Amino acid sequence: MLRTPVNVTRLRILAWLREAGGDRSGFTADDVAAGLGVSRPVVLAHLRLLTALGMLRTDCCADPVVYRCDEARIAEVAEMFEKGW
């Protein structure tokens, strides 16, 4: 059971995706792992959770899968936690 969507690694992933995003249409798990210096299995576990929470969107048709932030959902989740949910 998920106790909280907040975790240092997940926050780093979201921040990195936002900062590195620029004009790119997303990043692979390997991109994120290399960018953060974290192992691919660890990154994949966090990417899957963030995707399940709706905070990331994926292009599942791409091979490999490409991830990008869903800014509207991130703002929605942040607002819930600010209100003490």
From TrEMBL:
> From which lineage does this chain's organism come?
Bacteria, Bacillati, Actinomycetota, Actinomycetes, Kitasatosporales
- What's the protein name? ArsR family transcriptional regulator
Q: Which organism is it from?
A: Streptomyces capillispiralis
GO MF terms here are: DNA binding; DNA-binding transcription factor activity
Which InterPro entries does its entry note?
ArsR-like_HTH (IPR011991), HTH_ArsR_DNA-bd_dom (IPR001845), WH-like_DNA-bd_sf (IPR036388), WH_DNA-bd_sf (IPR036390)
What residue stretches are annotated with the HTH arsR-type domain? 1-85
